[in-house]
Design a protein that fits this description.
Order of helices and strands: HHHEHHEEHHHHHEHEHEEHEHHEE
CATH architecture of the largest domain: 3-Layer(aba) Sandwich
Structural class: alpha/beta
Strand content: 5-15%
Protein name: Methyltransferase/methylase
GO molecular function: O-methyltransferase activity; protein dimerization activity
Shape: globular
CATH class of the largest domain: Alpha Beta
Strand order of the largest sheet: 6-5-4-7-8-10-9
Number of strands: 10
Keywords: Methyltransferase, S-adenosyl-L-methionine, Transferase
GO biological process, one term: methylation
InterPro entries: COMT-like (IPR016461), COMT_C (IPR001077), COMT_dimerisation (IPR012967), SAM-dependent_MTases_sf (IPR029063), WH-like_DNA-bd_sf (IPR036388), WH_DNA-bd_sf (IPR036390)
Largest sheet: 7 strands, mixed
Number of helices: 15
Distance between the termini: 64 Å
């Protein structure tokens, strides 16, 4: 008997994965999950509410059911626990801002991945002479949406950091590239003895301070304006860098780690978290794809393994470096000065 032939369907599923991605991104774009947070609806009513043409609407809703993004009972559609928490606009853990940006920008840019692989050049606004961050920081409304999206992405990681680090050893923490301040807020809420704040470019200040006031933490957390390329980092017992190092080339990565080492007191700690690639570069597909996203989005950024990060930290003068896996694709590196 001949050996059973391998199936092509896993290849097909992966190759057509953009079908699933775009279905979810379109659902976020039209606010489907926000509507279903108000009430469950059957297909005709949901179609009318969302102003969708009836031809594709039922297949669209049922595809989201099959993908685990919606539930359907007695013909009525509802959010899953995950989409109810993370994809309803206005909720604290909403991550849709990042998904909306991905839909509007990244989805199209990734169509030029082949060109990026051949040229090594970014494929975003820079191809037309634009600059994503210059445009973003010049538009307060767009910046606020982006920063809120970063809050949704960062808060689940911050909850893990609040539990996994022995914060009894430290009194203060500063989050570098803080956005709205989700990380220091979460840490301060979990550990009432902590003070500190966040460091970011000056246009972020009003958004950060508004968020801190809303959380009732203005007496414990404050904003430190600055540019980590030209300004020294603020002093604290713990400095944090999340979603920062992967934006830059190796030279800048090393410079930022050296700056953190210089700013910390003896016994202080630097915590870096990112979608670190597994050391064997075999299993964390999300981390590897994020590194390709840095190819698309930046001039020289790339993601890295835990072993890479630990080596750079030791070169910067840190001791007692350890890498710990977090939930999902994330890991953190903790280094003591």
């Amino acid at each position: 008997m001949s050996a059973e032939l391998p199936s092509p369907y896993s290849i097909m599923q992966l190759a057509l994965g953009f079908w699933s991605s775009k279905a979810l991104l379109s659902a976020v774009e039209i606010g489907l999950f926000t509507v279903l947070a108000e009430e469950t609806l059957d297909a005709p009513a949901l179609c009318r509410r969302m102003a969708l043409h009836p031809r594709g609407a039922r297949d669209f809703f049922d595809a989201l059911v099959a993908l685990g993004m919606l539930e359907r009972k007695d013909g009525r559609y509802a959010n899953t626990p995950e989409t109810e928490r993370y994809l309803v606009r206005g909720k604290p853990d909403y991550i849709g801002g990042i998904l909306e940006m991905s839909n509007a920008r990244l989805y199209g840019f990734w169509g030029s991945l082949t060109e990026a692989l051949k040229t090594g050049q970014p494929q975003n606004e820079s191809k037309q002479g634009g600059d994503l961050f210059a445009q973003l920081y010049a538009d307060p409304e767009r910046l606020a949406l982006f920063l809120k999206g970063m809050t949704g992405v960062s808060r689940p990681i911050a909850r893990q950091l609040a539990q996994r680090v022995d914060w009894r050893r430290y009194k203060s923490v500063i989050d570098i590239g803080t956005a709205e301040g989700a990380v220091p807020v979460t840490l301060a809420q979990a550990h009432p003895h902590l003070t500190g704040g966040g460091f970011d470019l000056p246009p972020v200040r009003p958004v950060f301070e508004s968020h801190i006031r809303a959380m009732g933490l203005e007496n414990r957390l404050r904003f430190h304006p600055g540019d980590f390329f030209s300004d020294p980092l603020p002093a604290a017992d713990v400095l944090m860098m999340g979603h920062i190092l992967h934006d830059w080339d190796l030279t800048v990565k090393r410079q930022l780690l050296a700056k953190a080492h210089a700013a910390l007191p003896k016994g202080g700690a630097l915590i870096v978290y990112d979608m670190m690639i597994d050391d064997e570069r075999r299993t964390n597909a999300t981390g590897l794809l994020m590194s390709l996203n840095m190819l698309i989005e930046t001039a020289s950024g790339f993601d890295y393994t835990g072993a890479d990060c630990a080596g750079w930290m030791r070169e910067a003068g840190f001791a007692d470096v350890r890498i710990e896996r977090l939930e999902g694709p994330y890991s953190m590196a903790i280094a003591t000065r």
